[in-house]
Amino acid sequence: MLTTARIALGSIAVGVLVLALKLLAYRLTGSIALLSDALESIINVAASFGALVAVRVAEKPADRDHPYGHYKAEYFSAVAEGVLIVVAAGLILVEAYGAFMRPRGFELGPMGLSTSILASAINGGWAWLLIQRGRRLRSPALAADGRHLRMDVISSVGVLGGLGLATATGWSVLDPVIAVLIAFHILGSGWMLVRTSVSGLMDEALSESELTRIRDVIARHSEGAIQAHKLQTRMAGRATFIDFHLVVPGSMTVKESHDICDRIERALGREVRGALVTIHVEPEHKAERSGVVPANEPEAAEPQRRRRHDPS
Asked: Does domain 4-201 have CATH number 1.20.1510.10?
């Protein structure tokens, strides 16, 4: 299977190819909308370089200065890509304004049309690969790059449809109008990308369904313990941090409690990809009444989401 770094490197090559095709389509047609499409591809190439750097940093092992690893580096790449999308939208608006002030014609011939379609087809196939591999490898940078390219494909399809309408009606003003619509469209996608990435940087908890699955795993593999509570989770790129307190009988030896912890950690490692588990063992008088996962009673696990740190 391709590694995240190799996929990110492939994104640069694909981005350069698509950019060249879109610039060629603009040269063949003279369409300001197709030029806008090409300007967005310049941002795609720059974002792919950023994703490659972020992926390489995220793959570095933990060290003295970063004992929890470098996983969050990919989120910075995704945020930067969102910012670059905003820059691309600004460039498109500038070009569209110039076209409004100095109208110029365009010609949507077979060569220009086929070149643009080829560029969109390549982008669409690569976007699908990036999204699929990004989810499988749990890489925010690759997934963000894929979503960006998918929005680019949607924009390109809209451009071609609008230019076809402009050619059929003779309304050349539709060319810069389409460019403006593209700019606002990618602004929306950039905002969503930044918002998702910032959630990762802010240590947002896992989804309710994932939390329920984790509670079930803990309950099924905690034989000998009394309960688990104070369950907290957070995502950091490909790593999933799971932290909770495990209450055991006061008479239990350190070895026995350690064996239970090992059993739970192995089970969570099988069920949750990239799980990094921290378990704090407590004596039975520390048992609580709420937010509890009863040992060996998965059906009683309370589906209560805990997003904030419990100071106690």
From this structure: yes
